[in-house]
Amino acid sequence: MGKPAAQGMTKEKILLSAVSLFNTKGYSGTSVRDIANKASVNAANISYHFNGKQGLLESCFTRFFESYLECLEMEADKLDFTPADECLKRAVFNILQFQSENHLLSRFVWREISIDSQVVREIISSYLMKERYLLKRFFEMGQDQNRFTSMPVSIFIIQLKSMMSMPFLNSQYLREVWHVFPQEQYFVDRYFTSLEQWIDQCLLARHAAPKATLL
């Protein structure tokens, strides 16, 4: 194995170890030494690859939101020639799938976003403002296409965002109380079906019949 490949594996191992510890001990309760021990690397490797614990936090946000926004961008690019409800449903499914496959990272990021800090303010001013722009495009294009009812866009976006993030932010509650496991494909498929029905019932104009289910 070449040196760049080995370094890439070390960096990934450090990041995954950090995400695991941030979930169980919290960001402030996790030390660089904890992460180094879990990843079986020297603490100097964390400084080399991430510039310390703060750099690891920023890398967690970057990894999550770049993939999250890609799910929205891929479908937003199709809005000029595809019904908005179809694009929105595919984006929702892809986001649920991504969060399920990265459930520890998702839980940590959504939890951390609720805490006011300089890093979070920077995330809001960049990634989350772009998310707002993309989500508004789906809803506004749906209205322009006469696919969606006239509605307060901000309220429906808040509702949709809450439904997409809640299972992963509150994954322990779902496991302990409802015996539901957001990291399982079965959950993603069933939960998406419910969100798909919500879109059809709450957003579609009466004359805009829903297309066949995506699943």
TrEMBL record:
MF (Gene Ontology): DNA binding
Record-annotated HTH tetR-type domain positions: 8-68
Tagged with keyword DNA-binding: yes
Cross-referenced InterPro entries: DNA-bd_HTH_TetR-type_CS, Homeodomain-like_sf, HTH-type_Tx_Regulator, HTH_TetR, Tet_transcr_reg_TetR-rel_C_sf
PROSITE patterns: HTH_TETR_1 (PS01081), HTH_TETR_2 (PS50977)
Top-level lineage group: Bacteria
Residues of the signal peptide: none
Keywords on record: DNA-binding, Repressor
DNA-binding stretch(es), residue numbering of this chain: 31-50
The protein, known as: TetR/AcrR family transcriptional regulator
The organism of origin for this protein: Rossellomorea vietnamensis
